[in-house]
Amino acid sequence: MSTPKNPHALKQFTIALTIVLVGVYFGSMLALKKADSDLRNRQAPARGLGHNPPAAPDSDTQVSPRETTEMDDFSWTNEMVWIPGGTFQMGSTNGQPDEVPVHTVEISGFWMDRHEVSNARFREFANASKYITIAERTPRPEDFPGVPVENLKAGSIIFQPPGFDVPIGNNSHVWWAYGVNASWKRPEGENSGIDDRMDHPAVHIAWYDAMAYCKWAGKRLPTEAEWEYAARGGTNNFLYVWGNEKGDPAKPPCNIFQGSFPNNNTVVDGYKATSPGGKFPANIFGLHDMAGNVWEWCSDWYMPDYYRNSPAKNPQGPENSYDPNEPGVWKKVTRGGSFLSNDAYLAGYRPGLRMKTSADTGISDTGFRCVKTGPSPEEITKILAAR
Ligand SMILES: [Ca+2]
Ligand SMILES: [Ca+2]
């Protein structure tokens, strides 16, 4: 694969960059983290040997499913749409090397959240479960021996335009910074909040955080194949979620980045960062923001060549993870692009585009939505009629 143009592949790089930007004060901690990462990279066994995935961080196992009534009233279907099973062509010949071969995949029917999980929903979960996201946790001294405790600061990765021109195709990723105290509650770090963004998608959600939410909600994350099938609206193998044409530049069909990335966001679509769920047209299945707004976690580990030999029915993803650009870092798939996606850098909002991010990493443009295996609408009608 070529060097990725999207910054999601480069957590360690971003952290290293932060060392320069933030200086010695915070750099001492992050330098150790990078050193630790480098050590793990060197020790990583060769791909495909069944090495074990990293353990979930502490406290992720403490979440319990929310209390429900004894008899399922199917009220959970109100915020979801039924995705009827079918067969589709997964992948794209118009994208990156990891999007081929285009192959036939059969998907069983499932339910999917109409919107990305909102701040309101995530707050409901956090309040009920007392769950603390990874971005909110202060790094533990035992994980960073030798670093003064006062230098261990919770935070997450935020978008920060550098203020100088970055040539198209430049992979320096100078637009990412470490935001001290950035989290889903403070999307841009200190002095930011979500009071006026409760219907926007929650961001700075790591994969482990999303899994904890799913456990509480009685749902799960979509597989990568389910996500792409749903985004494409079933059988269509369009280039974009809505068809093969990009559409009217004056009326963007989704929340992405207009203008010259990263400094000049012309905000033609009306949103510089996240947008409330449902502000842009739904796709054929009735799903909103499957293109843009925030990247969405899938359950699959990332493997660049998974399409070459994956199961033809309901593929669940590989057992291992390998990113040639960051060997040794276990990554989960994210899909759909974000408010930062633009045509100069991968056009991440295409339904075939595969992104990958370290499972413990939150970013200011990454969230998720859930799916659920359950009876179809017809079956539910029968169940309710029989009561
Ligand atoms: Ca936008
Ligand atoms: Ca999205």
Outline the structure in words.
It is a single chain. The protein has 387 residues and is of the alpha+beta class. The protein folds into two domains: 1-43; 58-385, paralog of FGE (formylglycine-generating enzyme) (Alpha-Beta Complex), CATH 3.90.1580. Helix content is 19%, strand content 14%. It is built from six helices and 13 strands. It has a four-stranded mixed sheet with strand order 11-10-9-12. Strands 1-4-13 form a three-stranded antiparallel sheet, with no helix packed on it. Helix 1 packs antiparallel against helix 2. The longest helix has 20 residues, at 24-43. The protein is globular and about 65 Å long. Residues 1-50 have low confidence and may be disordered. The structure holds calcium ion (CA) (2 copies).
Write a short abstract of this structure.
This protein is of the alpha+beta class and 387 residues long. The chain has helices at 11-22, 24-43, 119-129, 207-217, 224-231, 377-386; strands spanning 80-83, 86-90, 103-107, 110-113, 155-159, 176-180, 259-260, 264-265, 295-301, 331-335, 354-358, 366-367, 371-372.
Draw up the topology in text.
Blueprint: H1 11-22, H2 24-43, E1 80-83, E2 86-90, E3 103-107, E4 110-113, H3 119-129, E5 155-159, E6 176-180, H4 207-217, H5 224-231, E7 259-260, E8 264-265, E9 295-301, E10 331-335, E11 354-358, E12 366-367, E13 371-372, H6 377-386
Parallel strand pairs: 9-12
Antiparallel strand pairs: 1-4, 2-3, 4-13, 5-6, 7-8, 9-10, 10-11
Helix pairs in contact: 1-2
The structure holds calcium ion (2 copies).
The site of one calcium ion has 8 residues, from loops.
